[in-house]
Write a structure and sequence with these properties.
Oligomer: heterodimer
Order of helices and strands of chain A: EHEHHEEE
Radius of gyration of chain B: 16 Å
Number of domains of chain A: 1
Strand content of chain A: 25-35%
Order of helices and strands of chain B: EHEEEEHEEEHEEH
Distance between the termini of chain B: 27 Å
Radius of gyration of chain A: 12 Å
Largest interface: A-B, 17 and 27 residues
Shape of chain A: globular
Helix content of chain A: 25-40%
Structural class of chain A: alpha+beta
CATH architecture of chain A: Roll
Strand order of the largest sheet of chain B: 1-6-8-2
């Protein structure tokens, strides 16, 4: 299953990547766990207790949401506009 | 309804004039303009850069305007949010709400801003004497949005 994964703001800068394609099937929490397992800044920024949001196809979802095939998944810090 | 994300500035008077042009059913227009400040968290801010999530931003703004329309009888809503590099004193965001009476216009304007602060995917990065820093989300903004669910 293929996903397009986007990162924004502080996470994009720290990860050094804005977008990547990943083969993954499961939930948003599962994807985050797989990214954490990369270690380094990934483990640090996505550690338990760090605040981040996950959007699937441009809607914020809960971490137990199942990711549909071909989804656009975005991971970003809490928003600070306005 | 007008929802725009843009780099250019905006003119509140022109937006209000456009809302009321050619109609006489509007009794009240409430508006809010948010500005970039020169100070935050004890540091001087020389400039800020606003990033957003193109596509999701417009959807999120449309959704929160829909929620306002479901709560109040509104005649028109304009939301303009800027992105890119802004200097202290520059306008960042405009919300204008037209209604038959002031009550719904005031309330919906505040509701839209409170939801925008916590739901719309924008992020601010500040240039300070200590270097660049991403603005952290505030618990007070979550509390401001949450109070609309309390009643």
């Amino acid at each position: 299953m293929s996903l397009r994964v986007l990162y924004f703001a502080r996470l994009r800068e720290r990860f050094g990547v804005a977008e990547e394609n990943l083969d993954f099937a499961g939930t948003a929490a599962g994807l985050v766990a797989e990214l954490q397992a990369r270690g380094g800044v990934w483990a640090e920024e996505l550690a338990a207790g760090r605040a981040y949001r996950v959007a699937v196809n441009q809607e914020i979802v809960a971490l137990d949401a199942v990711l549909p095939d071909g989804a656009e998944v975005a991971i970003f810090p809490p928003v600070t506009g306005g | 309804m007008k929802i725009v994300v843009q780099t250019e500035s905006f003119d509140l008077g022109a937006e209000v004039d456009a809302m009321r042009a050619g109609r006489s059913d509007i009794g009240a227009i409430a508006s809010f303009v948010g500005l970039a400040r020169d100070m935050n968290e004890g540091s001087g801010v020389a400039a800020m850069t606003l990033e957003h999530y193109p596509g999701m931003t417009e959807k999120a703004l449309a959704k929160l305007v829909d929620e306002a329309n479901a709560r109040w009888t509104l005649l028109d809503v304009t939301v303009i949010h800027r992105v890119g590099r802004l200097l202290p004193g520059d306008p960042i965001v405009l919300v204008a709400v037209a209604g038959r009476h002031r009550g719904e216009a005031f309330a919906a304007c505040e509701f839209i801003m409170d939801y925008l602060k916590t739901q719309a995917p924008f992020w601010k990065k500040e240039d300070t004497p200590e270097g660049e820093r991403w603005v952290e989300a505030r618990a007070s903004d979550d509390a401001a949005a949450a109070r609309w669910n309390a009643s």
